[in-house]
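Figure 3 (text version): structure tokens given as input.
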């Protein structure tokens, strides 16, 4: 389908499509050719302007604007029935002329014929110019927009505790379990409350504690903002005496294990004495010494009184 301007029809007095088609399809019918027009640049992209210019189209009476010559220019495939597009321009008094044209987006890439002719004001032929050409390049490929990669998160990954013993070589560097202060040492009797204070965990890390040899989960405990976690538990009934392993696993990947020796529970005489596991044995010795001292003191007083009575009788 051709693309022609209204000016082409108005100036020439006939449709520019008809004139342009004649230029492309029947150039031999016109008179002797003038100098060849110039197409510049010869290679363009869609919407890039190119200029077709020439000379030798002199009007007989340039002073009369109504009878001035015009130049029709058509661009298209020489074998097509109609040009791709066409337009007209009015030469100067010296017969020189130029016109700016451009391909539209979507026009097929390739080489096209450029035909031009000098026409009378009424559409009659004055002369035909030799054919020129222009090349339309294919549109450049649109570069793909790279997909943005989300920034990695800085939070520690969640680790599901397994309770398995990994060996002391797997202990996370910086984690310690001091035995001082309120913490229980490395040995505890059955039934005794155990307190462990560990440092070096991540802030607010949730720590699962498992007792081996037969794995028993003793509970979960949360570290404070400084990474210190306080663990409290009672050795489960039925735990055999001997050396065991405590495993501490944090949900942020921290791991620590240490030994814990379980001893037999202290023997108790009655139910009340079992409630005094921390102090009952310590009180028994002072009480025994007190009773002995009272008995000894009573014996000394009795012996002194007896000697005094025997002396007075003598």
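Below: residues designed for each position.
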């Amino acid at each position: 389908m051709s693309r022609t301007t209204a000016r082409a029809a108005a100036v020439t007095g006939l449709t520019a499509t008809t004139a342009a088609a004649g230029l492309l399809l029947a150039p031999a019918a016109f008179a002797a050719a003038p100098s060849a027009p110039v197409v510049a640049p010869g290679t363009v992209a869609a919407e890039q302007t190119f200029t077709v210019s020439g000379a030798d189209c002199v009007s007989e009476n340039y002073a009369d604007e109504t009878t001035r010559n015009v130049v029709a220019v058509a661009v298209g495939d020489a074998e097509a029935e109609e040009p791709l597009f066409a337009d007209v321009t009015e030469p100067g008094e010296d017969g020189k002329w130029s016109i700016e044209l451009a391909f539209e987006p979507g026009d097929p890439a390739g080489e096209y014929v450029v035909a031009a002719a000098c026409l009378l004001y009424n559409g009659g032929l004055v002369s035909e110019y030799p054919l020129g050409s222009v090349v339309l390049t294919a549109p450049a490929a649109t570069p793909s927009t790279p997909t943005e990669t989300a920034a990695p998160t800085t939070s520690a990954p969640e680790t599901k505790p397994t309770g398995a013993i990994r060996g002391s070589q797997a202990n996370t560097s910086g984690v310690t379990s001091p035995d001082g202060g309120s913490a229980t040492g490395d040995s505890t009797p059955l039934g005794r409350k155990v307190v462990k204070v560990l440092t070096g965990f991540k802030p607010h890390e949730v720590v699962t504690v498992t007792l081996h040899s037969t794995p028993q989960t003793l509970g979960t405990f949360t570290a404070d903002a400084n990474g210190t976690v306080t663990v409290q538990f009672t050795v489960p009934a039925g735990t055999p005496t001997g050396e065991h392993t405590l495993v501490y696993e944090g949900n942020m990947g921290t791991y620590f294990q240490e030994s814990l020796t379980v001893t037999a529970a202290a023997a108790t005489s009655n139910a009340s004495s079992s409630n005094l596991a921390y102090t009952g044995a310590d009180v028994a010795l002072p009480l025994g010494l007190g009773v002995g001292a009272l008995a000894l003191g009573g014996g000394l007083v009795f012996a002194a009184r007896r000697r005094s009575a025997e002396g007075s009788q003598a």
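DSSP finds four helices and 17 strands in the chain.
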